[in-house]
Write a structure and sequence with these properties.
Rossmann fold, about 40% helix, single chain, 6-stranded parallel sheet, about 675 residues, 5-stranded parallel sheet, elongated, about 15% strand, alpha/beta, 3 domains
């Protein structure tokens, strides 16, 4: 094959493949009349070299565990990924490219997590992908340490990322990259598409720091490739240097040109988020010697070449399969754990080891959560966890936990530092490893800082576990800056996120049980700072009903009033029911630790817990009312917060804001009077 003298390191066939990627990407955008063509055009050479010469994968088995991971953090350039997936032989047809951004297609506007298709994570919200990749790199390091034995490198893959100016500008990327440098994640290679253009125009408008020095300060191995994005000899040299690096993650700062090759749109902001136009594409095709009348055209020699690449990937996996079979003979117990983890099995019966708490004792649910972790984590080696510098407060540590560090890849406890947003995205990256799960803790009020990552987890159904402690005005003296009031409603508003607010220690164990056993999406645990009385399960309903989302604690044959509550306010509801009973008013108390699971129950069960004929209802929660109307109806009364909190001891806060037994009783009588 002859060498392309214009673009060092590329043959004429390579150049044809790159042109094919460019035209597929820009034509998909043009047909959709929507999208971002410029980034795929500028990054096509680097992506092609990466996918054909360095990455290991098998399109016939996209979830092969030892594949290299590719993260298009610059998710707006999604047609680059879709074009690569099509050419590489994944389940991505030309018809799907032609259906870019259309209803029901496999080609949404930004990549959405689909490991069967070859999309490793959801990207588009900038900074998420590169931060997910840090979690993926952590997972690989831990898994390699845990499973690999001499002669059997069953976990030996790298994580490659293409990131944009926007990714590097987002604060989450700074948080995650700082931690990656600290941890020395040398299995992480980020290719920075330095094209100098964002939506507003030239990046000089707002982004002028020395990015190379910044990442050097983080502790990264920084390689700079100048030119126009086509010098693949220099790019490959940087990739090879990255492969030799043993102590640091690598950033390859690759100077490119947005919409490369476009006669009138190259280096313009207009090429960032708008189609090039039919006339411009025609001009490009003429300049490259392509038939302007052909669209979505893949030359046969390109298809044949990419089939050869795919065949090599299949052979690579075949060799790995042989090694794993030998590994299973030599290390059957480890191989069994590997297979169980791949199938989503915990390998233990949680009911046999979950702690039980004495009725009548006072236990903060954050401490109960810590007790659960102390009981289960020693027996669950494929779960990692940590905290955003709030370990003693979140109770996320467990006995004999070892920190994961640069010199301790066998550690399972993650010190995220004060980096909540990055923590959320890193948990997501760990949780898509296929073998590991992850949890991370911070105060509930700081869920605001990581909401972007929580939302992506819910959208993508990553099985991440978010531990949020200090869940209400019960935080007390720290005051309204640290007292969440709107956060319960805010998290419940996110589709697919299962939110638990347990009423006592035993409900907390059951919330953890659900979170650990279910892998079809993320879970959030909202836990108290203050002690809560452990309910007597022989007298009241069983905490095992947490898996149904809501259940009756205090039953009544023909209730006059329903008292509905979650978390720390359940105690108020129980006391109020006793006071109402003394006045001849029959109250049914319902614990509602998880609205989302309750919504999934059948109508018969839901009506047995919240009888529709009982219109008098009181909702009690130390948060804002938003969402409670669903359960309270038109005549219900809410006892909770309608403002921010205040700095005072927790008991005083509850009294001053009217979240008391007396006010629950008054509210119950008001609701009954309203329907009389």
């Amino acid at each position: 094959m002859s060498v392309n003298k214009k673009n060092p390191g590329l043959s004429e066939l390579d150049e044809l493949c790159i042109q094919t990627i460019r035209f597929l990407a820009m034509e998909a955008v043009q047909k959709a009349k929507s999208g971002h063509p410029g980034m795929p055009m500028g990054m096509a050479p680097a992506a092609y070299v990466l996918w054909t010469k360095y990455m290991r994968y098998n399109p016939a088995n996209p979830k092969w565990h030892n594949r290299d991971r590719f993260v298009l953090s610059a998710g707006h350039g999604s047609t680059l990924l879709y074009s690569l997936l099509h050419l590489a032989g994944y389940d991505m047809s030309l018809d799907e490219l032609k259906s870019f951004r259309q209803w029901g297609s496999k080609t949404p506007g930004h990549p959405e997590y689909d490991p069967e298709l070859g999309v490793e994570v959801t990207t588009g919200p900038l900074g998420q992908g590169i931060s997910n990749a840090v979690g993926m790199a952590i997972a690989q390091k831990y898994l390699a340490n845990y499973f690999n034995r001499e002669g059997f490198p069953v976990i030996d893959y790298k994580i490659y990322v293409i990131a944009s100016d926007g990714d590097l500008q987002e604060g989450i990327a700074s948080e995650a990259s700082s931690l990656a440098g600290h941890l020395g994640l040398d299995n992480l290679v980020v290719v920075y598409d330095d094209n100098h253009i964002s939506i507003d125009g030239n990046t000089e408008l707002s982004f002028t720091e020395d990015r190379a020095k910044r990442f050097e300060a983080y502790g990264w191995n920084v390689q700079t490739v100048g030119g126009d994005g086509n010098d693949m000899a220099a790019f490959e040299k940087s990739l090879k240097n990255a492969g030799k690096e043993k102590h640091r993650p690598t950033l390859i700062k690759l100077r490119t040109h947005i919409a490369f090759g476009s006669p009138n749109k190259q280096d313009t902001a207009g090429a960032h988020g708008s189609p090039l136009g039919d006339d411009e594409i025609r001009l490009m095709k003429e300049n490259y010697g392509w038939d302007p009348e052909k669209s979505f055209y893949v030359p046969e020699e390109v298809s044949a070449h990419m089939r050869e690449v795919a065949a090599k990937g299949a052979e690579t996996e075949k060799a790995w399969d042989k090694m794993f079979a030998d590994y299973a003979d030599a290390h059957p117990e480890l191989a069994g754990q590997f297979r169980d983890a791949a199938e989503g099995k915990l390998g233990i019966n949680l009911d046999e080891i979950l702690p039980k708490f004495e009725a009548g004792s006072s236990v903060a649910t954050r401490k109960a959560s810590g007790a659960v972790l102390g009981a289960v984590m020693p027996k669950l080696p494929l779960i990692m966890g940590g905290s955003a510098d709030l370990t003693p407060s979140n109770n996320t540590h467990f006995a004999d936990a070892k920190d994961f560090q640069k010199d301790a890849r066998d550690g399972r406890y993650l010190r995220f530092g004060i980096r909540e947003h990055a923590m959320g995205a890193i948990l997501n990256g760990i949780s898509v490893s296929g073998l590991l799960r992850a949890y991370g803790g911070t105060f509930l009020v700081f869920s605001d800082y990581m909401r972007g990552a929580v939302r992506v987890a819910a959208l993508s159904k990553y099985p991440s576990i978010f531990v949020f402690t200090h869940d209400s005005i019960g935080v007390g003296e720290d005051g309204p800056t640290h007292q969440p009031v709107e956060h319960m409603a805010s998290l419940r508003a996110i589709p697919n996120l299962v939110v638990f607010r347990p009423a006592d220690a035993n409900e907390t164990t059951q919330a953890w049980k659900y979170a650990l056993e279910n892998r079809d999406g993320p879970a959030a645990l909202l836990l108290t700072r203050q002690g809560l009385t452990v309910l007597d399960q022989e007298k009241y309903g069983s905490a095992t009903n947490v898996s149904k989302g809501a259940y009756v604690l205090v039953s009544a044959d023909k209730p006059d009033i329903l008292l509905l509550a979650s978390g720390s306010e359940i105690g108020l509801a129980v006391e109020a029911a006793e006071k109402l009973a003394a006045e001849g008013i029959s109250a049914q108390v319902v614990s509602m630790p998880c609205w989302e699971l309750f919504e999934k129950q059948g109508r018969e069960y839901k009506d047995s817990i919240i009888p529709p004929q009982v219109k008098a209802r009181v909702g009690i929660e130390a948060g804002v009312e938003l969402g409670w109307s669903k359960w309270l109806g038109d005549k219900g009364v809410f006892v909770g917060m309608s403002s921010f909190g205040a700095s005072a001891p927790a008991k005083i806060c509850f009294e001053k804001f009217g979240i008391t037994v007396e006010n629950v009783v008054t509210a119950a009588k008001k609701s009954m009077a309203d329907i009389a």
